[in-house]
Amino acid sequence: xxxxxxxxxxxxxxxxxxxxxxxxxxxxxxxxxxxxxxxxxxxxxxxxxxxxxxxxxxxxxxxxxxxxxxxxxxxxxxxxxxxxxxxxxxxxxxxxxxxxxxxxxxxxxxxxxxxxxxxxxxxxxxxxxxxxxxxxxxxxxxxxxxxxxxxxxxxxxxxxxxxxxxxxxxxxxxxxxxxxxxxxxxxxxxxxxxxxxxxxxxxxxxxxxxxxxxxxxxxxxxxxxxxxxxxxxxxxxxxxxxxxxxxxxxxxxxxxxxxxxxxxxxxxxxxxxxxxxxxxxxxxxxxxxxxxxxxxxxxxxxxxxxxxxxxxxxxxxxxxxxxxxxxxxxxxxxxxxxxxxxxxxxxxxxxxxxxxxxxxxxxxxxxxxxxxxxxxxxxxxxxxxxxxxxxxxxxxxxxxxxxxxxxxxxxxxxxxxxxxxxxxxxxxxxxxxxxxxxxxxxxxxxxxxxxxxxxxxxxxxxxxxxxxxxxxxxxxxxxxxxxx
Length: 484
Prior knowledge:
Blueprint: H1 4-45, H2 49-62, H3 67-79, H4 83-96, H5 101-113, H6 117-130, H7 135-159, H8 163-176, H9 181-193, H10 197-210, H11 215-227, H12 231-244, H13 249-273, H14 277-290, H15 295-311, H16 315-328, H17 333-345, H18 349-362, H19 367-384, H20 388-392, H21 400-414, H22 423-443, H23 446-453, E1 469-473, E2 476-480
Antiparallel strand pairs: 1-2
């Protein structure tokens, strides 16, 4: 049996052995941390920031109490524009070592770059409290003052409506605070105020890379996509904002507006497919009332409205809707064609000719527009000649019996043998009688009537034979028969 002294001796030896092993392990770990630190530094110097983060992370796993390792990894994160991760590491660094000035300086700089000016000032003041002549901290404090003044100037100019001045101040601000979320939001709002939705989407996109849950940026970016007529992306961003804040009123309002617009469009399209043009017209108008400034999307609504009105014979209204399309999208060929057709339907012949000529000049290769120009010119020419149907007081679809009856009734009134009164009255009756005879001569002959209806000149027509009264009008001889 071993005595008490022997047991004590064995215990001391075992403890010594464990201490030696721990010392050797510490040396080995220290060597590994040093190697990983150098590996990370080399990767950082070569701008291989992902590799640097990986090496620093492995080193931190071996030595989680090193403020230096967290500070270095934060620098790599900053270079990768992953400010949130960098800020967590710098928080850990100063927590581990309150005297680690580099950690305080780097965190102050990061806060300044992100426009967290109050936090930046606290961090830099902490450094200067330890080392009043710390050159980097003093330089950072000066940059902080510049950034603070620039942000105040941006806000003042934006509030006064000085967009160009605000942009100039933004450039100054970004030079000292490139990751300033507040500045990025202001920039996006300036673009939105100018209706430059592409730039507004780009600005909010940069902001959301650093702060994915920024609800105001999500709503503004959703609004930009809405006006860019990318409704799927718009709903996605509004939905993301509502995930972060289910009670966000503006996000809910904008999301519902997109859905309402889409419902109105579907209702109009269903009515148009069913050839229910009155219902389609009503639905298109309701869609346009959702948001009059939604120009890219409303092009389709205005075009549908123009089509539905043209189908209903509302020529002038169809032309107006088609003109609205062209105001938003110059050179829209279908809209140009509908406008001309609408003017023709409204019998606005001169307007139709003028618009058709303009359209052909804009789209010289369009056979449809050239055809409409020809039709408009023909209709204008027809409108300038005598309206034989109006002279006889009949509709254009009147049959032979109606033509003949109208002629006889008017002839009884204006026949020279039936008119009494002054010479002036007789002359007026004779002129009217000639006009009635001229109209009957053409409309009672199927061939002449067809050519007249088609807009052809009647100067070369062969005149009918037989007995009757003959009058010459404009180089043409008209023969008519009168039987009382």
